[in-house]
Write a structure and sequence with these properties.
Layout (H helix, E strand, L loop, with lengths): L22 E4 L14 H17 L4 H7 L16 E6 L1 H13 L17 E2 L8 H4 L20 E4 L8 E3 L20 H19 L8 H28 L2 H7 L21 E3 H6 L11 E2 L21 E2 L57 E3 L25 H11 L5 H8 L9 H5 L1 E4 L2 E4 L1 H12 L9 H13 L6 H16 L5 H4 L18 H9 L2
Parallel strand pairs: 1-6
Antiparallel strand pairs: 1-3, 2-9, 4-5, 7-8, 10-11
């Protein structure tokens, strides 16, 4: 979606908005050399041209091709797309990942235009899974987030649910600016509703445990609610999100067991006892979610995209992620009636009836017969290809080509941060030789629907780059991680390099937070709170618990 990684961890305007000080970014593999190190302005320009061409190869054209044919840009919700869709990951986890990203990272300083020193960059979010994107600086310092008189519950906006569902928008000012702990969680209409879901979770827990507290114990009431909400969120991140997007065996091998006090981390080691965000995670591995983005989504049974009730005169059950111009394929002129609906956010309130029915985003995919609504909507596969709306991000419309391309921005930022190649990290991790991608796997083949096929455009690109001394045996880390998932895991989840970086970072952050459930009670589960939550809590179960009377 727009904004997810498109700016340098873009977020809050004031560094004073971190709830508990700042931490550092740093390197997980600090002994490895950068994958690309231009030695002159001419080499810098040559490398930029190479990355521009690679970014172009990484963006599909299916969305625009369908529009040019006068067809809806995406398949209807009743059709499966086995070549594109993940058979295992529902679409909601793309945006839960974005929500987690906003909870742990914010860097307003790094730039595409210069080489950056990760050890000198400040992370102005707390490097903990503590939901400071929800709680902000707390009721005493940001009372406008909380209801009077006790300021123990969050204020929510108007209800936009359908079929009797409670689906509030975020609280907004007169100009529709969202009043929340982190403005980034209003950057699209899906992540804003995940924000609202957790706000509602806090409010319901607060009400449920209210009888346990006497008058005058308001602070204790709020703090206990916050602990329960944070621990349940941490549980979901470590036990629901991670095993879906990573190799589940790797995640299991890292987590604490009854006979083991802490996690078994091999590569995430805090500097001087202080948790940090590895740039290999924030700049490369965790950006795997960009390849999972669909070009459009359906929110509930009433949604039909397009301001005229359809798309190019045809019924269509999804909303595009960005506004886009429709053109007459015969004349190439803009059509008179343009669709205006999109998932873009920032200052745009949720329209009536746009409240998400969470079974459209979470659950077990591919359970319905063809011709029925395919719920939950699957995410797209984790592979080296992004949907074409991500080629021209609306927020960078005024910048020169290729700076509006999300793929280019990710690739260029990896160079600016001096990231090692995917192959060098795989070797340092001790990945088996036959599991380390070679140049042929990286550049001459692709996986479509579980079938490996030749990739002529990639082969031609690599031959040119190799003649210019780039990329041979040294693929950009972000690209390598996507290609590893594509070739080794059929796009169903991250491969070994990606899984280890992502899982070790998130588990390491939780372990180094002495207030987390993982540190205080590593074998805890949500059912122990005696609130009717299941022991194996996941996002759909959480949403259903919140909706229940």
């Amino acid at each position: 979606m727009a904004g997810h990684g498109s700016r340098p961890l873009r977020g809050l305007e004031s560094t004073g908005q971190s709830s508990a000080g700042t931490a550092k970014f740093g390197r997980m593999f600090r002994w490895l050399e950068p994958a690309a190190l231009p030695q002159s302005p001419m080499q810098e320009q040559e490398l930029r041209e190479t990355l521009t061409e690679l970014a172009g190869l990484m963006v599909t054209s299916e969305f625009q091709n369908n529009i040019d044919k006068g067809e809806p840009p995406d398949a209807p919700i009743t059709e499966r797309e086995p070549e594109d869709e993940s058979p295992d990951i529902p679409a909601g986890y793309t945006y839960l990942g974005q929500f987690v990203d906003h909870d742990i990272t914010f860097d307003p300083a790094s730039s595409l235009q210069r080489t950056n020193d990760p050890d000198a960059l400040e992370d102005f979010r707390t490097p903990r899974l503590d939901l400071d994107c929800l709680y902000g600086r707390g009721p005493a310092d940001q009372p406008y987030l909380y209801e009077k008189p006790r300021r123990g519950k969050f204020i929510l906006g108007r209800n936009v649910g359908v079929s009797g569902m409670e689906r509030p928008d975020l609280q907004r000012t007169a100009d529709n600016t969202a009043l929340i702990g982190d403005k980034r969680n209003d950057e699209n209409k899906i992540v804003s509703q995940i924000q609202a879901l957790f706000l509602r979770f806090h409010n319901k827990v607060y009400d449920r445990i209210g009888p346990n507290f006497k008058p005058g114990e308001e602070d204790a009431h709020f703090n206990e609610t916050q602990r329960i909400v944070r621990w349940c969120y941490q549980w979901i991140v470590l036990n629901d999100f991670l095993p879906r997007v990573c190799d589940a065996g790797i995640v299991e091998s890292l987590m604490p067991l009854p006979d083991r006090r802490g996690p078994r981390l091999q590569f995430y080691h805090p500097h001087e006892g202080t948790a940090y965000i590895p740039v290999e995670f924030s700049v490369a591995a965790y950006r795997f979610g960009h390849s999972m983005v669909r070009p459009s989504y359906s929110l509930n049974d009433r949604i039909i995209a397009g301001s005229s009730g359809g798309f190019a005169g045809k019924q269509f059950s999804r909303i595009p992620i960005f506004p886009f111009p429709l053109r007459d394929p015969a004349t190439d002129k803009p059509l008179k009636h343009q669709p205006t609906d999109s998932m873009a956010g920032f200052g745009e309130p949720l329209p009536d009836d746009w409240g998400i029915d969470w079974k459209f985003f979470f659950g077990t995919p591919n359970q319905q017969a063809p011709g029925q609504k395919q719920l939950p909507q699957p995410s797209y596969r984790i592979d080296a290809f992004l949907v074409d709306p991500l080629k021209d991000l609306p927020e960078f419309a005024g910048e020169p080509t290729p700076f509006g391309s999300l793929a280019f921005r990710n690739l260029q930022r990896g160079v600016s941060m001096g990231l090692p190649s995917g192959q060098s990290i795989a070797r340092m991790m001790g990945v088996a030789r036959d599991r380390i991608l070679n140049d042929e796997q990286l550049w001459t083949v692709r996986n479509e629907g579980d079938e490996i096929s030749p990739w002529a455009d990639g082969a031609a690109f690599f031959a040119k780059a190799r003649s210019q001394r780039w990329l041979t045996g040294a693929a950009p880390l972000w690209y390598y991680i996507l290609k590893e998932a594509e070739i080794m895991e059929n796009g169903r989840h991250l491969g070994e390099v990606g899984s280890r970086i992502v899982a070790e970072t998130l588990i390491g952050l939780a372990w180094n937070d002495h207030y987390s459930y993982l540190f205080q009670m590593p074998l805890w589960n949500p059912s122990e709170e005696l609130l009717g939550l299941p022991a194996k809590l996941d996002m759909l179960a959480l949403a259903e618990w919140i909706d229940a009377p």
